[in-house]
Amino acid sequence: MRILIIADDLSGAADCAIGFASVGMQTVVTLDPLNDEADAQVIAADTDTRRLPPARAAERTVAAFKALHKPGQRLYKKIDSTLRGNWAAEVAALQPLAGLAIVAPAFPATGRTLRGGRVFVNGQPLETTDTWKLENADRPADVEAMLIAAGLSTAKLDLDTLRGNEKALERHIAEIAGNGTQALIVDAQTEDDLLTLARLTASMDRPLFWIGSGGLAREIASLPDLSEAQFTVVEPAALEKSQAPILILVGSLSGVCERQCERLKERGGVSELVIPPEVLRQGSTHGDWSLWQSRIGEQLDGWSDLLLRIGRDEAFDPQEGAQLSTMLAVLVEPHFAKVGGLIATGGETARAILTTVGIDSLQLLTEIEAGVAFARPTVSRQGHRPGIVTKAGAFGTDNALYAAWQHLSDSADRSPPQRTRIQGLE
């Protein structure tokens, strides 16, 4: 089975696809789906549509599908487990092309579940979380209402039915598909719930596609016809261990990410710089731009691992995230060749730095913890291909950034560079 994953941001594409890489399938994430010619068992395309108007996001999603879809390939539309972005409009645009939409955003490994068609985060209704309030204010977090508003007819599959007799469940889904329903919303609270759904729908001989986060994707990847298949994983040309420092870029302002940064500084002894948003808003015209660029260079020249974060001020607006991330990447770009490993938290931050330094695709290699993916650039226009870890901002345990830093540290020679002894000066 070949899989095409279409995601609306880079970290989402990676955390959804990493389950397939973990079972040995050659898995590539592309940042340029309309021009990428990757030939892999799993292709995950980042359409970068989360901040677009819904109609434009739907148009770009369909264009990616038409550019990348091949016969015999199954479609997985990756959506955010906390329902951010234009996911409903994108699903509605894909549905006439791909069949019944199986909608299951739960990701139990990260505390996201679905009950009664409503998302819960660690048992807390999504609407009450800071993640939802930051960008959605008074909007309800209702999966069915979002799909209906996008023009789709819906049905729900509750836990009792999902956990019942599988033959009866299969007949039930077939009946729903047969009566013209366009989207089936599936409750799930455990990984076993998602595995049941994956096993049943993967074997059904009817047009359908999956809509979910990394949770359902991991269970599809674990199915016997995938996990028992023999694939050859080719890591991009063997690379020597790097002595260079690790750069951690953090664009997310979530409370989860804040705790992860504190743990990294506490346990890893990593240096930190917090860039004022005003500097990033004005870019090179700001009076302190060159000063901040020099400070970043001095840290990396000193072989110091660096945590570089976007600060927050009273003028901050979540909608400016992409702009601030882009300018952060521009600030870093002159020093990128000094970096031996990169951790990028937040899809906008990850995409900004990779596109700025000329990296258009990644080969996924392993999962550090749920939703935290390690990769190598397949091609780099600068020729520099450090190990790269991506992570969604609000994802992961408090230990996630530290674990990612450890992973990069363990795969590199962390000794300082050898100084050349000059005769007469020692």
Description:
The protein is an alpha/beta fold and 426 residues long. It folds into 2 domains: 2-227, Putative sugar-binding, N-terminal domain (Rossmann fold, 3-Layer(aba) Sandwich), CATH 3.40.50; 246-410, Molybdenum Cofactor Biosythetic Enzyme, Chain A (3-Layer(aba) Sandwich), CATH 3.40.980. The protein is 38% helix and 22% strand. The strands form 2 sheets. The protein has a 15-stranded mixed β-sheet with strand order 9-10-5-11-4-1-3-2-16-17-18-15-12-14-13, with helices on both faces. A 3-stranded antiparallel β-sheet has the order 6-7-8, with no helix packed on it. Strand 17 (372-380) and strand 18 form a beta hairpin. The longest helix has 15 residues, at 54-68. The termini are far apart. The relative contact order is 0.15. Mean pLDDT is 88; it is low at 228-234, 236-241 and 413-426. Residues 3-219 form the Four-carbon acid sugar kinase N-terminal domain. InterPro entries: 4-carb_acid_sugar_kinase_N, 4-carb_acid_sugar_kinase_N_sf, NBD_C, NBD_C_sf. Residues 247-401 form the Four-carbon acid sugar kinase nucleotide binding domain. Belongs to the four-carbon acid sugar kinase family.
